[in-house]
Amino acid sequence: MVERLAESLDVPNADRNVLLLSAGYAPRYPTADTADVEFSAQERMLAQILSQQKSVPSLVIDDTWTIRMRNVVADRLFSEFRPHYRLPDRVANNALHIICHPDGLRQFMPNWTAYAEPFVRELDRKTLMEGSYAAGHLRNALFAYPGVADASDRSDTSLMPVPLTLCLKSEKTSLSFYTAFTTFDLPFSLKARSLKIESLYPADSSTARFVERLSSNPM
């Protein structure tokens, strides 16, 4: 009965485990914290998609916003910024912590507030409207960082950028990407539904040339 209810409400895997535990049953769904998880057929499929997107920086992210995979061009793109991160190990591979932590990617994002706002609002929605324990836990952790609660409280949603644009600026370069997410729904696969691909498409010609150099570099 618990699983039928969770299925009908499309509850994420992490929250299904919470429901099962509350009902006195053992958790049965894998989570991002499970060590040495063997790649499933779905994960291998996603890895193939990423490898084919050679000119588009792309990452696979699960329902807890943990980065599960990244393609070569994404790894090369963020390698310029990653040495400057000062993140605790427990959150160093979480996309939203990387964006929101003041010593993460945020320090290179001139439009950080506008970019972070939709993600924080989505966590608010999942926490308050859907009662998601996983979203609430992540939301509370992010709200400990300066400015995150302010991004959630902004009332004028008409100012939110469409499409969502990630701007990155360092001493060497200034980049701009449109952000797009692709979600999946495979028959009878709850795990596939919790995974999404984030793709970063160059928003200007200089960024396109930069990504082209990254993707053509044989290193």
- Estimate percent helicity: 40-55%
Query: What's the number of extended β-strand segments?
Result: 5
Write down the Rg.
18 Å
Secondary-structure arrangement, i.e. CATH architecture of the largest domain: 2-Layer Sandwich
What is the CATH class designation of the largest domain? Alpha Beta
Q: Can you list the strand order of the major beta sheet?
A: 2-1-5-4-3
How many helical stretches? Answer: 10
The secondary-structure class comes to alpha+beta
Mean pLDDT: 81
Number of domains: 2
- Beta-sheet strand percentage? 5-15%
The quaternary structure here is single chain
Largest sheet: 5 strands, antiparallel
The coarse silhouette is: globular
List unreliable stretches of 5+ residues. 32-38
CATH topology of the largest domain: Beta-Lactamase
How widely separated are the two ends? 53 Å
Order of helices and strands: HHHEEHHHHHEEHEH
Structure in words:
The chain has 219 residues and is an alpha+beta fold. It has 2 domains: 1-30, no CATH class; 31-216, 2-Layer Sandwich (Beta-Lactamase), CATH 3.30.450. The chain has helices at 2-8, 13-22, 41-52, 72-79, 95-100, 112-128, 133-143, 148-153, 190-193, 205-216, and strands at 58-61, 67-70, 165-169, 174-183, 196-202. A 5-stranded antiparallel β-sheet has the order 2-1-5-4-3. Mean pLDDT is 81; it is low at 32-38.
